[in-house]
Amino acid sequence: NSGALNGLNSSENAAPADAKNLRVKLVLLGDSGVGKSCIVLQFVRGQFDATSKVTVGASFLSQTITLQDSTTVKFEIWDTAGQERYSALAPLYYRGAGVAVIVYDITSPESFKKAQYWVKELQKHGSPDIVMALVGNKADLHEKREVPTEDGMELAEKNGMFFIETSAKTADNINELFEEIGKRLPRPSQPS
Ligand code: GDP
């Protein structure tokens, strides 16, 4: 739907209507298979479907939440849909993003390495005030864990990121992830 895409592009530079109603582009980054699509579907639809591979796809999904201070945050969520393989496209993908969520799988050290790559990449090419979150997903698979919680915490701390472990399967910490991001978004200054 090009109308929606145009609307989104034009919102990149426009200030939100007011400080109580925020709108932000959020991109998900991380290895294929770490659960990016499942995190989005759990957040937006409250579903986990382990049997069908769902791709959020070419377009984006949006979801609005209300924070405790009654600020509303509309997330416009972009999934890479496999484009992480074409790293030359990546800067286009996260251009204009106010939030980057870097996801790894706690059972996969490889995916944690890839997360470290994305942190560097965003520091080089992302917007300087981007809010970054590091997410260790599949926390329900604790018997298969290969990435200690402390490693995630350390990477996040070093790079000024918010860190959380989630399970898109059980929905553990999924809403908390987006609420915490919402709290960390810069508020536009109100005209006095
Ligand atoms: P993406 O390529 O990063 O978008 O990954 P997907 O969302 O397609 O998920 C990849 C696979 O991991 C699927 O088979 C999911 O069912 C599974 N998966 C995703 N999140 C979780 C989770 O939190 N726990 C478990 N046990 N499996 C998950």
Automatic annotation (TrEMBL):
The keyword Nucleotide-binding applies. It holds the Pfam family Ras. SMART domains: RAB, RAS, RHO. Keywords: Nucleotide-binding. InterPro entries: P-loop_NTPase, Small_GTP-bd, Small_GTPase. PROSITE patterns: RAB, RAS, RHO. GO terms for molecular function: GTP binding; GTPase activity. This is Uncharacterized protein. It comes from Brassica carinata.
